[in-house]
Structure formats: C-alpha cells, structure tokens
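## retry 2 of 3
previous attempt timed out at serialization; input unchanged, resubmitting
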Amino acid sequence: MKIQHILMPFLVALLVACGSSQRVITADGSVYQVKGNKIMNAGTDVSETLSEDQKASIKTLVAEQKEAKATAEKLQEELEEKQDRLNDAIKETQKKQEALIEKQEALDEKLEAKEEATADFLKAKKRLADKTKKYQRLKDKGKLSPRDDEKWQEKLKDYQQDIDDAQAKMDALNKD
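## retry succeeded, writing output
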C-alpha cells in the first residue's frame, strides 16, 4: 500500500513529462524539447547546431524516458491487478467470516435451547418428586379422602406428562 502511495505521484509526474513532445534535461543542465526529429531549446530549433554526440545523447535520454514510462505503466498495471486480487481476497475472507459468525450464532442458539430443555426437564422431574413425596406423606397420615386421592392422582399424571414432554423436547434437540 505504501509503495502505491509513493509510486502514484511518480507515475503521474512521469506521464505528464512524457507527452507528445518530450522534455529532456541533459547532464549539463540544458533543457531540450524533442518533437519527432526536431530538437528545440527555448522554443528554437537547434537540431542542426547540435553535434552528433549531443543528438545521440538526447535521443538516448528520450529512449530511456520512453522505457521508464513503459516500465512505470507496466508496474502500475501490476499494482492494480495485485490490488484487485487483494480486494477480492478480502471480500472472500469477509464472506467466510460472516458465514462462520452465522454458524456460531446458530450453534449458540441450539446450545441455549438444549440447556433450557434440560433445565425444564430437571425442574419437571423435581416437581414430580416433590409432589409425589407430599402425596405419600398425606396418604400415609390418612389425610386424603377418596376424592382428594383422585385429584392427587390426576396432578401426578399431569406432572408425569410434563416430564414426558420435556424429555421429548430434549431428545428432539439432541437428535440434531
């Protein structure tokens, strides 16, 4: 990412410098404008006044600039491709992470439902045990009329049904 921030201004400056006419700064500090075969200095054509070595040097600099421009464009394309691949990888990772989060939430909900079903089962079992104990105590003391005994039998059946329902719910949750 830092490379891209450093390379982008360089590439922009290089592209601006390399237009249809190219500016060349020689080692001695002279600035030449090259348009096709014409070499200009300060707006005047100096192609005829330059020595062959100077012309060759300027043309070499132009060729180097073109090569640098091509290299910079290639690097820019590679960076953009890498950035695109990185963005795609990030998106894919985010999708996978979201899927894992959803899966974890579903597992948490299922675990919570199992814990709740187990708690309900244990609560119903304790209630039946307590009520059965109370029924036995009252029956042993002879404090139950036949009508009360019948009511207690109904209550105990209801408590047993609650246990059976809680057991079925717990079994259904544990089956998955």
